[in-house]
Amino acid sequence: MKKKVVLTVLAIFVIIQFFRINKSLPDYNPEDDFFQHHVAKAEIQLLIETTCYDCHSYKTTYPFYSEIAPISWFLADHVEEGREHLNFSNWGSYSAKKAAHKLEECYEEVEEGETPLWSYTLTHFDAQLTDQERNTLVLWFKSQYDYTKSNQQSAKK
Which domain holds residue 53? Predict the structure, then answer.
């Protein structure tokens, strides 16, 4: 009985490996990238790219374990949801109002420690933010939010 269960589980594991995730990246305009619209010091750009871009852009780098189902399915779902919520690769397509809202969400999520997700930092040690890095990002996102909001108000006048 035990042998049949083990063989069944093993067979299921092998079979699900044939159900691959789609890792192809859609065509997008590089001019729409977030950093084409927001100038940041190299340190801040690297922090954002390291902690955010894998899940929130089309510049996703898939790790080796993304080849193993069902882990790959979890990763694909996570990246898809992340891009739906915020996509730095499509930033230029956001209206000024939407961009301001996304910037507000960025600083709130970083400030509250909601991002990067702990499940992401378990395997991406470079994405673990120190308190100083977290504060730096919060202040920078807030400054970009304030700048965007002031431009919106100027445009209305």
Answer: 2-156
